[in-house]
Specification:
Blueprint (H helix, E strand, L loop, with lengths): L3 H4 L8 E6 L6 H19 L7 E3 L2 E3 L4 E8 L2 E8 L3 E10 L6 H7 L2 H7 L6 H16 L12 E7 L2 E6 L11 E9 L2 E9 L31
Antiparallel strand pairs: 1-5, 2-3, 4-5, 6-10, 7-8, 8-9, 9-10
């Protein structure tokens, strides 16, 4: 079973993490409620003040002075949060570990260099890569004129549980080298990816949107189709 203690293997302070699990039907309304419950737990851990997660046209809004990210799938939701002075942005994604991506979906989400190492990797690695790209999207798209796409970043595995991605220049809001690390975890029947952008890493010219992306770039169901969450 996934636990906060397990998530702490990839999410370190001062970033807070929340987890919510539902034992009943995994319908979309319940998943949304679970996401807010996980966010509430993360907010309670990061702030002594009473701060509520708001609602916007594109999804939940984090309170002023807080950055965060939410992900949910099949009765389980996780959220990460931090003070804006500690991190510029956060991104997290979770998928069921039993999910397998169809070949044409793998082609869509990966770059040629990524497909080279995917061919020799474990069968779960396409899903790990998908999670990492979802987390990048959630962390960075609020700073860019257009959402970060699958082809905008190329990851390579460095050590177990660590992917390092290089962004194309047009998609990078970072002031320095366009590299981002994604820490990953396979535990309790789930795959999780987490991205954090250190405070001050985003360049001053980057545009900040009014909402924080919480959904993925695109869903990739087992039948190989894609669509917005």
């Amino acid at each position: 079973m996934l636990s906060v203690e397990a998530l702490r293997e990839i999410v370190e302070p001062p970033v807070a993490v929340g987890l919510a699990v539902e034992r009943s039907s995994p319908d979309r309304a319940n998943e949304s409620r679970l996401g807010r419950a996980a966010a509430r737990a993360a907010l309670d851990a990061v702030s002594a003040e009473t701060a509520e997660l708001g609602s916007g046209p594109h999804g939940p809004r984090w309170p002023d002075g807080i950055v965060g990210s939410i992900a949910h799938t099949y009765r389980t939701a996780i959220a990460v949060a931090a003070r804006a002075g500690d991190r510029d942005a956060l991104g997290v994604d979770i998928e069921r570990g039993s999910r397998r991506l169809a070949g044409r979906v793998i082609e869509r989400i990966s770059t040629p260099d990524e497909r080279e190492w995917l061919r020799t990797g474990d069968e779960v690695m396409p899903l790990v890569l998908f999670c990492a790209k979802e987390a990048i999207y959630k962390a960075l798209s609020r700073f860019t004129p257009h959402p970060v796409s699958f082809s905008d970043v190329t990851f390579e595995p460095r050590t177990p549980g660590l992917l390092v991605g290089r962004l194309v220049a047009s998609a990078s809001p970072l002031a320095g080298e366009p590299e981002v690390a994604a820490r990953t975890l396979t535990r309790g029947g789930f795959v999780v990816a987490f991205v954090e952008i250190e405070a001050g890493a985003v360049g001053p010219s980057s545009s900040l949107s009014s909402h924080v992306p919480t959904g993925p770039i695109a869903r990739a169901p087992a039948d190989g189709g894609t669509g917005r969450r």
